Amino acid sequence: MNVSALAGRLRAEAEQTDERRLLVLAGDRDAGIDAAYDVVEGVGFSDDGVTFVTTRDGFRFERLHPKHADRLLGTTRDCVVLDAHGEFSPNAIGRLVGAVDGGGLLVLLTPPLDEWPTTRGGFDDYLAVPPFTVDDVTGRFRERLVRTLREHPGVAIVDVETNTVERDGLTGESFTESTESLRSQSTQVAPDTALFPALAYESCLTDDQARAVRSLELLRQPGHAVVVEADRGRGKSSAAGLAAGSLAAEGRDVLVTAPGSRNAEEVFVRARVLLDGLDALAGENENENGEEEQHLRTVEGGHVRFADPPTAATLPDDPDVVVVDEAAALPVRLLSQFVAAPSAGFFTTIHGYEGAGRGFSVRFRDHLAESDKVVRDVHLDDPIRYARNDPVETWAFRALLLDARPAVDPLVEDVTVDSVEYRAISPDELVADEHLLHEAFGLLVLAHYRTEPTDLARLLDAPNLSLRALVADGHVVSVALLAREGNLDAETRRQMYDGGRVRGNMLPDVLTSQLRDEDAAVPVGYRVMRIATHHAVRSRGLGSRLLSEIRDELADDVDWLGVGYGATPELLDFWDRNGYRTVHLSTTRNATSGEYSALMLDPTSEAGEAVQSRHTDWFLRRVEGVLADLLDDVDPDVARAAIRATHGEYAERLSDRDWRVVAGASYGPGLYGTAPRAFRDLAVRHLSNPDAADLTDREERLLVRKVLQCRPWDDVADELDYLSTSQCMRSLGDAYKPLVDVYGDEVAHAERERYTE
Questions:
Q1: What residues contact 346, with CB distance under 8 A and at least 6 apart?
Q2: Per-residue confidence (pLDDT) for residue 593, from 0 to 100
Q3: Which stretches make up the TcmA/NAT10 helicase domain (predicted)?
């Protein structure tokens, strides 16, 4: 059987069942491309229904570079050809597998399958972070991928060099009622009591989608939240767009947000089509950069507009409704701010490239349940583009671990900190034990707001990464992913110091390039990239036990342990309790999380101690300057916790006159504005060692907001709930009394006694 004939049979079976089929063309690259042409022409695909994803040029079909494969997200094709030679990455599969329509083919061009795991390509270079080389990168991910290709139904494999069919991929299925094309179902009809326009329901392709739109009518009234969860290809973003358009048609202001504007395209497409169909006006505005802005306006005064997540979280211009698409790809702290909107819809992918739905459901749902919102849950199960149980979808889930999850709660809920075993889990163990791999990777998914297929390949193949876990009765209950960093040669350090980016060395990079310490990349350490504990056994000390075990194991091998993360007061306290010290607080917010990042070190040698000590000391010397400038909007509790976690010995630089001003403002008629730097120095000294003087939380927030961040008195008084600005001003003087008592010298105490005797 030649390739064209096999492809024809695969296409016929796929069309009969409204499923997709995967055809692997293994062997020489040129032979694979020629065979792919034979497939496309032999099957009779129209040119506009075919996309080649490759670094090669010269195709008459649509051609995308693998780096731009995400442009097919939310689109459909009859055939997608992915060239896995050279620039292959796991993310490309994750992005493209959903773009193939029911009845279509996904064609994968690969080196000979037996050779592919050891065949070097651009992705191997990407994983070879300094000081490691490409020779240190393994091929376990591709080895496992090949195994799934050879075992999974619906996957055909052809050796294009010998024209040998290894597997024909035919399942023997035929057209049945259960596999009837969902797209051929009758048009949905609006319920008699529907509040959205009938056209919104008629635009739905499945009963599931119509049911979701019906539930989204709740967003018309304040005090409601609707959560729509689905796997990819179920039409959740379309439902979001139909609801947004319907709400705007009624005159409501709908704010849409997503990890990126491209993620929200389908929402705006559906909203625009609906509004056009309702004879509303839909316009495209030009933003300041001349780029198209996602902003729809209706004659009734309604809007559908887009803002990036950090901006949207501030609820700009007081929207009536917030729509959050791909919510699972956003961190919980940011998601929680959207609950303050009058009503909000959250749309999330449970399993897939876009985000980690399980983390969303475990973490954010607790916050939502505690809010005053009436919550409605909607699950979309029926695929729109292809039939349920499509073999290509189930293959992708298995190959990319899109459905990885921790152990079910009953298996671990009785675990205690004393009943677990500490283990270093090697990549070979993970590949050999799918159960272990699913549980460990499932916990890592929960540890981060965005997990991609590439993260699985890093876990299995990257030479700088290693895994540590706490295990109970064979089940993973806590896990940490570690990245070895530092030990960079002089040339690499010089390149980094001069602004060059060096992959895989986040902490040395920041300390060297931003904080101008070229020697910081000499010591070697392990950065905790991700750490997670099973949600059923949190707050039992397991995370701290894991970090303690890691330190005991690795302290003699490296100079430091470190971490970098989006700073919250709770996380800063956690790392502080485990011996990590603040060395930096980023001066820009993460574009997705909306948080400032904290960098912390736990030294394990004299060299590590030297790095941590000098950067902690410098952080304390410069923190008052950055808090008054680039960090003037940071949460005061984040600032307090970050400074406290230095445990530094900050020596204030107060002269005799400074002390007289501070003591006079605290105990007498002196004025804060006379010498604000003296007040700042004393504030930093206290916050770095808050146990020495007894201040309340509100008083410490007052030090941050007014003294260090230089906020206007009226704003500070309002934020901290003082009855008046004058009361706030008096409270600042009162807050400095214990600081004068504890830290003041003879001059300060003499000034105090003038007003207390």
A1: 225, 226, 227, 228, 324, 327, 335, 338, 360, 364
A2: 65
A3: 227-403
Q: How much is the pTM?
A: 0.88
Rg of the Cα atoms in the chain: 29
Instruction: Report the distance separating Cα 87 and Cα 109, nearest Å.
Output: 12
Q: Is 425 annotated as a binding residue?
A: no
Q: Check residue 181 and give its pLDDT.
A: 44
Does 252 carry a binding-site annotation?
Answer: no
Q: What is the pLDDT of residue 290?
A: 37
Tell me how far CA of residue 586 lies from CA of 170, 173, 537, 599, 622, in angstroms.
54, 56, 32, 8, 12
Cα 530 from Cα 445, distance rounded (Å):
9
- Element at 430 (helix H, strand E): helix 427-432
pLDDT of 351: 64
Decide: helix, strand or coil at residue 478.
strand
**Chain CA centroid to CA 259, Å:** 8
The DSSP call for residue 708 is I
Q: Is the dihedral of CA 169, 175, 178, 181 positive or negative?
A: positive
Give me 539's structure tokens: 């707050």
pLDDT at position 105: 97
CA distances from 270 to 226, 244, 255, 355, 613 (A): 19, 9, 15, 22, 55
DSSP-assigned states of every residue in 435-475: HHHHHHHHHHHHTSS---HHHHHHHHH-TTEEEEEEEETTE
Q: Please tell me whether 211 is known to bind a ligand.
A: no
Q: In angstroms, what CA-CA distances link 477 with 171, 405, 420, 469, 533?
A: 39, 12, 8, 7, 6
Q: CB neighbours of 183 closer than 8 A, spacing ≥ 6? A: 18, 102, 205, 384, 385
| Helices marked H in 180-228 | 198-202, 207-216
Distance between CA atoms of 418 and 399, rounded to whole angstroms?
A: 35
Structure tokens at 374: 């009436």
Helix residue ranges, H only, 668-724: 676-688, 697-702, 713-719
C-alpha to C-alpha distances, 180 to 14, 393, 502, nearest whole angstrom: 12, 17, 52
What structural domains does the chain harbor? 3-167 (3.40.50.11040), 198-380 (3.40.50.300), 409-626 (3.40.630.30), 656-754 (no CATH)
Q: What phi-psi label fits residue 343: left (phi over 0), alpha (psi between -120 and 50 degrees) or beta?
A: beta
Dihedral of alpha carbons 409, 410, 411, 414, sign: positive
Token pair for residue 139? 């091929």
95 is in an annotated binding site: no
Q: 385 among the known binding-site residues?
A: yes
Q: What is the pLDDT of residues 177-234, one digit of tens each?
A: 444 444 444 467 888 889 999 999 999 988 899 999 999 999 999 999 999 998 877 8
Q: Annotated binding residue at 577?
A: yes
754 is in an annotated binding site: no
